[in-house]
Every structure is written in C-alpha cells, then in structure tokens.
User: Fold these one by one.
Assistant:
Number 1:
Amino acid sequence: MNTTTDSIKISFFSAKPYDREFFSEANTNFGFQLEFFETHLGPHSVNIVQNKQVVCVFVNDKVTADVVKILATKGVKIIALRCAGFNNVDLAACKEEGIKVCRVPAYSPEAVAEHALALIMTLNRKTNKAYNRVREQNFSLNGLLGFNLHNKTIGIIGTGNIGHAFCKIMLGLGCKVMAFDLIANKDLEAIGVTYHPLVELLQNADVISLHCPLNEQTKHLINATTIAMMKKGVMIINTSRGALIDTHAVIVGLKKAQIGYLGIDVYEQEDKLFFKDLSSDIIQDDEIQRLMSFPNVLVTAHQAFFTKEALTEIAHITLNNILELSELKQLSIKAALLV
Ligand code: NAD
C-alpha cells in the first residue's frame, strides 16, 4: 500500500451498493479514504463536499461550470470519472480552476458491445415475450417471427473501443459490417469491415448501432432527416449516449413503421429516471412512456457496462488514475487525463 494514500479523501457521487462493493474491494490495494453519497453531484449537492481532494462522478452527475467553481473552493484537485463518456463535465471550467479530470476510457468494451447484441437478439427473436408466454403455458409461435442476422448489413457509427468489439461480434455472426467514423481503423478493414460516408451507411444498413461519443457534431445524429434516409423497418440500437437520438423524431418514425425496432440503453432525459426504483411513482416523462408502449421498443436502464469484469476494471483504473494524478506521475496507458 502507498504510504500517502490514506491522507487522500475521495467523495463518490451517485454511489450505488455495487459501487461501494467494487471500490471498497479495489481500495484494499490503494488505501484511500472513501466516502459514498447516493445523491447526484450538482448545484443542489455540491456543498456536501468538505475538504476533499478528489470527487468521483458517474454519467448523470452534472459537473457544470458553477459546480466546478464551488468544488475548487472546497479544495478539490481531481475529478475522477468512473465511466468513459465525459459530456457531463465542463472541461474548460476545470482547466480554469486548475482541477485535473480523468476518466476510464476502456474498461471492458466487450461488456457494452455484448449488451448491444443482447438488445438486437431480444428485439429480433422476442425472447422476452417467449419467456412470459411459455410460463403461462402458451406455446403458440404467432407473433414471434424473427429474421436471420446472417448476411444482414450492420451499420456501425463510431469504431473506437466499443464499436471495434461490436464489429468483431457482428462479423462473427456472418453479417456484412459497414462503418462510419472520422478515422478508418485499418485492423477492422483487414478483417472485412468497410468504411462508407454516413449517408451511404444510413441508406443500406438493416441494423444501425451507435458507438460514437456525444458532442456538438453528434447530438441528434438520429433525427427526422436521417431517419427518412434509412431502409423501411430498420433496427436502431443506442448503447452510447441518449442525446445522439432525437426522441420525438424516433417516436414519429416508429409510428410510421419507418423504424421497425428500437433498442436503447441510454435516453436523453435519463438522469431523472435511470438508476432509480420508480415503480411506485407517476412518471412525468411522456416520451419515455410513449417509447415503452411500443411492442418493438426495448429500453434498458444504462446497464450495458454492468458486468463483474467491467466493474472490477472501472474501480481499479479509477483508483489508479487518482493515485497517479495525486503523485504527479506519468499516466499509464489506460488512464486518461482530460485536462
Ligand atoms: P471511443 O472514444 O473509444 O470511440 C469513439 C469513436 O467514435 C472513435 O473512433 C471516434 O473517432 C468516433 N467518433 C467521434 N466523433 C464521431 C462522429 N462525429 N461520427 C462518427 N464517429 C465519431 O469510445 P468508446 O469507449 O467506444 O465509447 C463510445 C461511447 O459509448 C462513449 O462515448 C460513451 O458515451 C458510451 N458508453 C456507454 C456505456 C453504457 O453502459 N451504455 C458504457 C461505456 C461507454
């Protein structure tokens, strides 16, 4: 154990029982002081932080410029994201306040890629419906008809860590894999992935899966115009970030049957819903309610990363990032210093 780590206090926001479990276990090798808060980090909760050097946040914490300024006054020197995406952090504000920001760029891309496959397979072969049907002794096959994935064209937008793993899975199923990215990956081209302009991918893919980050260029990438370019009956899968999709446009596309299937693990307004048990509440978000009413829509609540392997990696890499940043060491290959 490092002799100085026990003086470093880390405040975890949006902490769930599994965060406590995996971080406490990983921390036996580090020896930091850990403190867990269930609440999101945002203007309403930032004042909980008192004399802490490190704040550890997740996807729906709101690390806005105002929050960053207050964190700086509380002595926070490091914001450690325990996730890959960082669209919820104002990096410019962190830089201005001299706060370092790190993330976990690649913990288990296979976990997310395999969940994208699970969404496809469930939507296609309707195993969720079959499960309930058979338990009620209804052995009829009516309404369960699927299609072979073999020889279908899969359009993959973003071929970074997760997109790369997903390309390999879909090639393994005998699919034709078309990709769009700002940079073509030569290793993927060597195994049969072909890169195309976005419009060509949208026009030809039977299944479109999103694996690019959310930024100004990609916000509402799936909108009324791009949906109109797609094959009728297309399947759209989003395990990346909710705001890649214009929800209203997708609802219109589903009603017209232009979109045949939608599988989403992320949702633009998910911060008010996901990671909470709202089973006794009246949901005020009419768009998610409408989406969940379609028989050909599958929503999971941001669980694509949620495997034992991924949580073990996330905890270890996050604590190692904090160790390296607090000791001002050169970052290792898996750590990612954003500012
Ligand atoms: P990555 O950075 O390794 O890859 C992203 C790829 O997208 C890169 O190849 C990049 O060149 C490409 N890209 C950037 N802008 C683009 C654009 N305008 N059009 C097309 N491609 C573009 O990221 P990753 O680890 O593969 O993760 C992808 C996303 O998945 C993350 O940004 C995150 O939002 C999301 N994610 C979701 C979960 C989950 O549990 N649902 C878990 C981890 C990550």
Number 2:
Amino acid sequence: MKLIINNLCKTYDNGVKALDHLSLEINQGMFGLLGPNGAGKSTLMRTLATLQDADSGEVLLGDINVLKEPDAVKKTLGYLPQEFGVYPKVSAVEMLNYYAFLKGIAKARERKEVVTSLLNQVNLYEARNKYVSSYSGGMKQRFGIAQALLGNPQLIIVDEPTAGLDPAERIRFNNLLSEISENIIVILSTHIVDDVSDLCSEMAIIQHGRVLLTGRPSAFLDQHEGMIWAKKIEKEELEKYKAEYHVIFSHLQEGKPLIHVLADGDPGKGFKALTPGLEDIYFSTIN
Ligand code: ADP
C-alpha cells in the first residue's frame, strides 16, 4: 500500500496559498512531515483525512481515490488531531467502546475484545476506568492512538503529537508510534526535528505549501558527512560569522552561541568537525 499525492493545491478564502502543487509518495512505515509553523502541514493532514477539500490535485491510497471517495478512506484511516477533544466524566473504556461502535463494530462482545486489546497495547489498561479528562498529556495522546487504531487502519495520521509532553512521556509515545507503524503507513506531522530523526525512515520538508526535500534521512545525513563544522563564539561575533561563513543555525551551549557551518573542507580558525544531524539538513533546507 502506498499513498500518492499529486499536485495538491489549496488556497484559503483570505488568499493564503497553503498547498502549492504539492506532490509526495509515501510508503509503509513512519513518514515524517517536517516544516515550520504555517508551512501547510495541518492543511495537508486534514485534506488527507478528508476533513477538508483541496482546490485541485489527486490523492491515491492504494486504489482508493481519497478526494472522491471519502467514505472509503474513513474506513481505513486513523487520525490523531493536534487537539484531541475529550468529554468530561467519561472513562477511557467507555469512550473507546463508543468510538468502536461508531467505527461499525456492532457486537458488544467483539467491541469488548477490541477495546481491551487496544488499551493493553497503549499501556492504559490499568487506567481504563479513569476519566480521560483526568489523564496526563502523554496518557491522552496514547488514548488518541488507541482510538486511531480502531478498525485496523492502513493509514494513520498524527499531527504534532509530542508538543507539550514531558521527555519520558515523549519517549514512551514515540516507542508506541514506532511499534504500530510496522505494516501500515503512519504520517507524523511535526516541527520537532528530533522526533523525525528518532522515528522516521522517510521524510519530507515542506514550506509555503511546497515540498523542498523528500527522501531518507539517512541518505541526507550521509551526503553531508564532512561538511558540518561547529564553533562556540561570543554573542557579539554572530553577525561577523554570518557574513563570512554559511551559518546553518546556531543554538546556545552553556549560554554561548554554538554555530553550525556548512563548508566543503575544514574552515580552520578553531572549527570542529561534526557528525551531521537532521537539524543541519532541516535548517539548511528551509533557510
Ligand atoms: P502548519 O500546520 O504547517 O503550521 P497550516 O496548514 O496550519 O500550517 O497553515 C498553512 C497556512 O494557511 C498558514 O499561513 C495559515 O495561517 C493558513 N491557514 C490555515 N488554516 C486557515 C484557514 N482556515 N483560513 C485561512 N488561512 C488558514
């Protein structure tokens, strides 16, 4: 099963072009969709999830024409939106049972089996009788994955799932995503570069509704081997270095800027060779 996106366009009523002839081919496994805020990620995710229309273009999920057959897509889609609304005073097991009913699992006994198995899979069985509204951020997101997995979807879309999770919750959530993505397509939309480097075998970087780069993170890292150099400098030197070198980005280390520079050979002057990271690829692509 493959997801093929051809020339997708969407302009909002206010004139913002959120998708600009966007094309992508997405295979089974975890696919990372990276881009800064406003890049068009959520618009793309909502379009793929058939929650909003595109102006033109085509999307194929296997032999389903996604934009023309939204009901067929919904049967094989799991979607975890950015904000996962939960009803107050409803336990996880009750809520999941209700969602299972909506997904068309009509027999109560079958629903019970499916719900129990999913709650175990996302490690919430012990907390099944607690209100979902009382869950921590990480537990809510894992509950979101349980509801997204109902009905054995072929495609799961997760939009910015780890924003707001503490580090331990994030690791736990990412492990879960990695487990479920073995035989299906999971699209992870995020601006957190580390999540993509930890999880995704393929990725795309989008900006202004266009694809700037797509492929395997490992291939991009290999291509940049020997080309990323770093140096810790004083804050007031930053502009001077930017004028002289191709500074990809800088971040603080012990309160001082550590600049990452792209160069074919050793720039000298105290620069140290770095193993390329996905942040180097990301910032050199979007800037
Ligand atoms: P991302 O998820 O990458 O942050 P979005 O898809 O949310 O990007 O937004 C892409 C662009 O479209 C942004 O400029 C945003 O302001 C605009 N946009 C998103 N939703 C709407 C809307 N409903 N009406 C008008 N403009 C929108």
